[in-house]
Amino acid sequence: MIRALLTAASGMKAQQKQVDTIANNIANVNTGGYKRSDLTFRSLLYQTYKEPGAPTAQSAMSPTGLQIGSGVEIAGSLRSFRQGELMPTDGDFHMGINGQGFFQVQLPSGEMHYTRDGHFQRDGNGDVVTSEGYKLQTMPTIGADVIEVSIAEDGTVTTRTSESDVGTVAGTLSLFRFANPEGLKAQGNNLYSETASSGTPGLQTPGQTGTGRVIHRHVERSNVEVVDELVGLIMAQRNYEVNSRAVQAADEMLQQTNQMIR
Hints:
This protein is of the alpha+beta class and about 260 residues long. It is about 25% helix and about 30% strand.
């Protein structure tokens, strides 16, 4: 009975963290460029009472053996980088990525982080920055005399300084890709940092070698599907209830055993 209590308790702890993860996904349903997370589970150690294939008689063996598990634990969290819906906006410097890739931004410390959130703006220095003021890398500086900016799908940035101006190519915006984007570390503020698991970032031209295209005056929405999250929430709640009933059943059995001893 003590084993059953601990085993069921491990299931309750795992489902609690699953609910926490689902709640975070739902809370970020309107966060630009947010990518949903899900948990993966693995079984804990097994106690082997009889090895599979152990001899049971002359020229006979146990076909399955006897093993009893000790519960479950969380193996890790998996982030889905499935494409989110691209929504049109009126922002002159808003951009979305249709496909794979990340924008690279520089923090005040000089550290490079990566994002899918394309809510960019121009600051007083002419730099294109995030809402926190982090500079978008490879993006050319936009002068104060520029009245219109056009960003092509291949990242080409064209500016105009007057109504009669046909446009001048100011530079090219590049994107960055990782061998394993699921290995990126979430830092908050819609930012990710590279890790040994993600690999080093590779600078890419938008629309080439499998890299996504830049869609000007659009932003990528969260890829969270509320209906799927609610179904997952119900399943996690039911699993938690079943584990709690296992705890209750084991407690009642232990109580009956104690009464027999008395």
